[in-house]
Here is the input.
Amino acid sequence: MKQKKLDEILKKHKEWIINSEQGECANLMGASLIDASLRDTNLMGANLMGASLMGASLIDSNLMDTNLMDTNFMGASLMGANLMGASLIDSSLIDANLRDANLMDTNLMGANFMDASLIDSSLRGANLLDTNLMDTNLMGANFMDAKNTFSFGPIGSNFRICHAVKHTDKIMIQAGCFWGDLKEFELKVKETHNDNKYGKQYLAIIRAMKYIFD
Here is the structure.
């Protein structure tokens, strides 16, 4: 999308936010916004479904209640962005930076966070069903009241925090650099810890996990 057209859409959207009877809610469905500079931009309530925001800068932007379903944020910077209440169903956030982002009450069903950074982000009340957290940095992330996920720890010899995520047909575990289903996790624990106290700690959690998501 050309910058002039984007600027016109954003201007009308800003007017719409101030007075819904004026201006026009931004409809950027399917738009190509690769490497776009949208820092501090207010896109609250906008429709970005299926848009491509690869490499875009959305630092400190307001994406509250936006439709981001199937949107491509690969490599984008969303540091400090407000995504509260947004829908990110099936969106791609591979290698995206969401440090300090607000993802409270977001719908993350099927979202792909592989290699993304969620350091110190808030996922309170978010729905993580079928979410991919492979190699995701979750240090300091807040999962309080998040749905379809269960965090446990510090546990094991590295005193790590681990995260279980419910998928349609299985339970996936993120533990450090490990990402796999419950059966694979159990095999990895036995291989790494054998019958020591850390192995027993993990196996006790694994047994309980089978009932947590019932």
Summary: DSSP finds three helices and four strands in the chain. The helical segments are 3-18, 182-193, 197-212.
